[in-house]
Structures are given as C-alpha cells and as structure tokens.
Amino acid sequence: MSHLTNAAASAAAPDARPGSGAESGAGAGAGAGSVAGAGSCAGAGASAPLTVAIVGCGVIGVNHARAIGRQPGLKLVALVDELPEAATALAELVESEGGERPREYGSLGEALAGHPLDLVAVCTPSGLHVALAEEALASGAHVVIEKPLDVSMPRARRIAELAAEAEARGQVVSVISQHRFDPASVVVARAAQEGAFGRITSGVASVAWWRSQQYYDSGQWRGTWNLDGGGAVMNQGVHTVDLLVWFLGRPVEIFARTALLAHERVEVEDIAVATISFESGALAVLHATTAAYPELSARVQVHGSRGSAIIDDNLLDYFYASGGSGGSGADASGGDAGASVPGSAGGSGSGGAGGEWDASGKSAVNQAADVVAADQLRGAELAADRFIVGHLRQYDDIVDAIRAGRQPGVRVGDALISLAVVRAVYVSATLGHAVAFDDILNGTHDDVVVSTGASS
C-alpha cells in the first residue's frame, strides 16, 4: 500500500460532491444493479453477521464504514492502512458513532492473519486494487472494490480474470457503482431495457462540476495520470458514464476531445467531450468537466421513439413512457418494444403510461411522480445521509448475493465496460480520431500513452 491511500482524507470533499444529491435518497429502499432488482438483505439478522475489513481509511473508507454499520448482516472488525493514524482515526469514529471498535492493521496480510474475514472492501487509490483484490480473494474472502475498477486496462483485465476464478469457487466480487441502485436509475433502466421508451435513439450525459486549484494541490497524486488515472471523466464522470452504458447498451465507437483550461500544475483534463455510438444504433453525447464554476449538476438523458427520461443529480426530473408497439425495432438491450411501463400500472389515457399513443407528443405529461417516491423527484429536499445511503443500497445487494449464493447486481465485467469507455475517451483524444470500443477491451491500444489534448 501507499501513504497516498489517505491523501483524500484532507481534501475538501469526495468526488460525490456535497449539496449535489450525488448520493440521493432518504433511506435504503428499492434499487438494484440489475434490472430485475434485489431489495435489502432479508433475514440477515437470522445468521451471524459477515465480518468485514476496510482497506484504505481515507474519505471513501469512512463512507464505507458508515454504510457497513447500518447493514445488519455486516460487522466491521478490521481497518487496514499503512498510516497508523488513519486507521486509528476511523476506528475512533466508528466507536464514537456507537459501533464496536474495529482492530487496526498496517497491511491486509496482517488483518487476514489476525481475524477471520468474510468480506474485504478495497478503498485505496485505484492503482493498488489488483494486488489487494488478489490477496483477499486468495484467502477465500468475498471482495468489494471502490470505483473505478483500476486506472489501467491491463490491471483491470487481471482483476476480471481473478473475479471469474473466484466466482467459480462461489465467491462474490462486486465493484461499487451505487448509482445503479438509485430508485431513479432503476426505473429508467427498466423502461429502457423493457422497451417502454420504444427504440432507444440517443442519450446525453453531462457532469458540469467545479474543482478549485486547491483541490488539485491537496494531494500529489491528484491530477496525475499514474495514480488518479485521469481527470474529469475518470474521477468525476465515471458513475455517469456507467449509467449511460447501463441505459443504452454496448458501445461500438468513441470519438473524443479533451483539454486543460482552468487549472495549473495538472497533467489530466478538466474538460472532455465525446460522441459514442452503440450496437443498437443509438448515439450519445458525453460531457464531463471540473471547470464549470460555480458548479451545476450531473445529468443523464435517455430518449426513445416512445418516451424519454431525465435524471438530474440522481433524482428523477422527467419520465414519459408510452409503451405500446410503435416505433421501430428493439431497444438498446434487445428488449421488446411493446413492454409495459414499470411502476405505473394505474396510468391511463393518452398521457398515461401504457395508454393510447399520441404521435405528436403534445399530450405527453411528466409521469415521474407516478414511478418513484416523492423524495426521489428532482427538487426534493436532500437527505443529510444520502452519500451513506447510496453505498448502503449496494451493500444490501452484496449481502443478499452472498447469503443467496447468487451473483451481485454489479460485477467486475460491468465495471470493466465502463472503464473501457473512459479509456476510449482518453485514447481517442490523444490520437485525434475515433477508436473502436472492442480495440480498447482487447488491448489493441494498451501501449498508447495518453495525454490531455491530441498528441502532436
């Protein structure tokens, strides 16, 4: 491990920015990483809690600890960090908030030797994930890895190989992608994949955030290709990229441009734009920046021949799905264009889900309030614990997967796809031309040394 695992602890804020609703929600309720859904771990209290170690005790480690503390099927027993003061600080926080004080260790090996562990949460900088995941999986523990999977495609592919081997042994391996469990994301994914939007035609993903110069100066690793892995796309935009791919399906080609316009002493981009084409024929626009003062929102739009949806800071801003069999072809994931709209069985009329389709679109009304609870609508008061709840929803799924002997809602393969899109953005921007998504996945461009802006 590196002392850089804890550099984020002194930063002003984690990448899920305060006040944005980036971890929205008032309770650990509905939501799943798969369209079929999977609720909270039922009956977790009937079995002994799963013992958990957190590796990396910085800002994101704190969030994991708080989420784990709320999951009755989990017990935090070990904290691992090369810096003793970091592990001690988190142990004291856990204790001060009513939890049993976990033991502190300087390495994962020491923790594995010192206490039986069922689950290891890897919360270190991304470049250290593969070694820690390999060590944890070799011990027989289940593993959850913080996003992004890694900053290197070769290392990420190695993690995917390790995960496949572990899954064959019955172990659960998941990567944090908590926004796939947000109620707004779940209902949009269902509608897109069941054909309620008709044929998916396009998408727009935009992360218009602001990071000060002080943010980048707060740690030597920030803004570096080697350890940060990239800028606005890799760090601030990766969750939005993940949702875009989840909604629209498998990418085919990416063409991108990047620039560094509002910061100094930084290697990576603070603005990136890209166009993405998908197997279904759908097209999408990606925009990610940390140079949008004073900071706006993260927004995903999905558009189809029978409906559209907008998620703004993880809350549902707009939703209309007419269902029916109109439009042309299947949606991005091959779903039936005639599928019903989930969560709106009571809708009726030309403006209601599943009602008579109005080809002009003039009678369409926003159905968002019909498909999610009021606290999941854009404009709702943001819960103070929304960052914790986002991770808790995914931990609910992980515990249930372990207990039920099934795969988790988000697997390493899902994270590898999203990472490959990010890598494609950087490779395309560096080379100055479009790149094929499969060439990124299979390693054709692994030797490209990426830079901000096109290489001369």
Automatic annotation (TrEMBL):
Name of this protein: Oxidoreductase
Molecular function GO labels: nucleotide binding
Domain GFO/IDH/MocA-like oxidoreductase: 189-309
Region of interest (Disordered), residue spans: 1-29, 331-359
Pfam families per UniProt: GFO_IDH_MocA (PF01408), GFO_IDH_MocA_C3 (PF22725)
Composition bias type Low complexity, residue spans: 7-21, 331-343
UniProt keyword list: NAD
